[in-house]
Amino acid sequence: MKPAPRPAPNAHRAAASTSASGETRAVFDVLSVFGRLHARVVPAPLFPIVLARQGYTPSAVSNLLSRLAAGHVLLPGAWGRTTVYRRAPDYDTDFTRLAAAGTPPAYTGAFPAFLVPVPGADGAASPDPGDASDPTAEAHEAFRRAGYRPLRPGVLIAFADAVPQVQPALDALPPSLQSGFEPCTLTPRDLGTARDWVRVAWRLGDLGEEISRAEASVSEALDDPDLTEPRFHDLFHAVAMLLVHVPNVPSILVTGTGLRERLVDLMDRLAATWDERFAESLRSTVLAHPSAQFLEFE
After folding, report:
1. pLDDT per residue over 113-160, tens digit each?
2. Facing residues of 41 across strands?
């Protein structure tokens, strides 16, 4: 079986300046073209061909490509007169890392942590989620990408220290705001407390319920012989977004949940269905286009 068409786990970052979920999904779909084609470089003319199968118009795709290139999410290049795109390095790394279960980090008895500003805590109005006017929004998103999660307002914890990953976003803040972000280490009083922290910060209970609903939806859809490609991608997007939020928890901190393993199993089932029902049709359509000669496969 071919590799699963892999998720673009950071797709929502590219749409951080908007609260529109439709925009977020569109960015995800554009980035997922690389996974569908198993390619690291994709010529611009192939994006509208692939995304037309989900109902995107050529003008909508062109606008998305322009915005993602301007935001340095896609890196443009050229072969003669043909523009080609690759994912930016940080997206490319996470794209691969979150596509598989991986090995959980070791638990050392403490959590790398950050004390961060709480929007509105100084008496000012708190900005809406995704509000581009919040000057710390990109920094908070950098923490999320690096694996930090909120234990309580103003306190983020992680399984591994990721100061180098978040430092560029902090350095980009105005000097008056940088002092509000302080790295530290938090040590729970015992293992039970550590497990409670993980359950709260990573919402393990809620995630378990969401995964159960996803399993039921996937099973129902894959049993349908008339499953359409747009419906397939809706399911794929839903499972991929869950996978983004399910942590690779050190085994000592959680027992018996298997949340990530359940999602990887769902991704495997979806990948098999993609190969069986849709991959060959897409491949033949794409390879018939003259610009396909500029594809670089993984």
Report:
1. 999 988 665 543 334 444 445 778 889 889 988 889 999 999 999 999
2. 296
